[in-house]
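Q: Mind making up any chain with structure tokens?
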Amino acid sequence: MSGDFAFRWLGAWIVGLCGSVAVVHLAQREVGWLPFLTSLLGFVLSFGIIALVPYDVWEALTLAGAKETGQEPRTQVLAGASWELIYWVTFLLCWLLCPVLIEYESAGDFTMLRRLRASLRRNAARCAGYSVVGLLLLVCLSVAGGARGGLGAWCIAASNAWGLLASTVLMGYGLVAVPRHFWRLANPGQQLTANYCVAVSMDEARLSTQFELQDVISEARAEIASRSMQMWDPMMERAFSILQQTLEECEQLYCELTNGARGNLRNFAAPEQSRACGAVPRGGEDANRLECLAQLHGALKQAALEARRSACRWDELVQRCLLLEDLEEQIYPSAVELATTWQSSPFARLLCRWHLVRSCWHGSVLLWLGSLRPRVLRAMAGICGVLSTVIVLGQFTMFSGGRSLSLLSLLFKEGHGFAPTQVFCILPLSYMVYTAYWSVFRLKMAGWYGLYWNHNTDAGNLLWCASVLARLAAPLCYHFLLLVKVKGTAFQELMGQMDVVPVLGRSFNEIFPMLVGFLCICNLLNVYSRLVQFCGFDAFEFEWAPPTSADAGDLLAEGKRLIERERRRRSEDRNLLELHDRNESRRTIPLRCQIAQLIEDGTLPCDWNAHST
């Protein structure tokens, strides 16, 4: 028992540490502590559910084996009470707390109480719609066969139904797209063709968000210029102060996104228009002025978020295209370029001083980019393809009473619970979750939501991503247990409460898994886009689908031109920055002192002269 206890606590610490490091690296520095902790808890609980299911499977198989051999069964450590606590905390987090905080972050009101009221009001309207649909469904079920089960069973059934519907569409795409993605990554030319086509639409969307931000900034400047000082109100003064601060931050962001084009911002509101608007005492005439300012403030925040997110996605795409172009032309980074990328960390700067470390790191990078990378990616594509095939075959015969095509069920026979069971369990389960969650950010309905590294993910983004993962984790784990045909787990005992619920219970879990195979075939034959367009479900289309239009050649040429323009711009910016730094440093510091300082900082090695000759 002590070993099991230590193992579970070690796993909990590992999951918590990995989740904390990832969220810290993702979150913007301006994110508040409450959204940060909520999103961190959402990720940690989701990863915890995924990590505990293999242990639950091993424990159930061990208990079954002990009963068959007549041995005294060991005490079940992961009991149903543990799953009850984890599940309901995750349920409240992803279905109640995260939606409230998302709306709270996007609200444009100027006090915490008003922002909370606005958030609750928006979520109440959404919940009212869900309640009406649920009431109609309950009436229909009562008429058809009688509604059974308590409130907890209905909540589990409704949450599982949403997760199963979403995971069916997501896995139907991801089980085909993930192996393709790794295979294309191994071939830079093939991946570049797809990225060039995506670059055109992404650049148009990026410019559209910048124009939208420019328009909202212009409207906010005009509104601030129209402020009347004849009737002074503390609430109104606070609102204008917060709006002014947000406006300045948005102007700074706009300048960063447009490479310092501040001159355009100064012309947003002409002086004549400012004086004309300011002459009207609108504060006394319009009683709803504060509400209008709140709406403008919310629109300003939303436009800034969308512009930043689109810029992050564009930068990631450009960086990926530049790397693939260098790989295709066999242009690899030098030792000096790799050493300069280590300057962000003091520990990396310390390692950079050692010639052996620099040489080993440079040789490893060249070996990876030149030889290992395509082989490893093709091997990963093959492994993912095998896993996808095994999962899809198991979907068709999941509930068949005769012969089963689920190869995973052969690894988990009752009475054969051994330690590698957890290893064989975590690999396909993690792959199922990865394909579903990877596909979330490829959906057009996801918009600009995503996870952006280097502290570029805002609070609303973090909360949304954490809530989606938390909503998918439990249904996917229960779906996996049905796939491997393991019985007697504590998690199945918890989720089995919904079997008494008509329609949304066990019968719902029997029908929809078969659609995964159908959607996989549609994506494999590249007919999924045409199918969803024919059915009118354009929101469920994946934006990374291969282009099928006749002007694919024009998109390819236009995307290549855009990436080449970005390469020239970045090269010019880097040269100008280096020239500016060189000119500024030469005015005060001699060259000999500059070299000594660079060697001291670790930017240049001690034997720099020997390497330069």
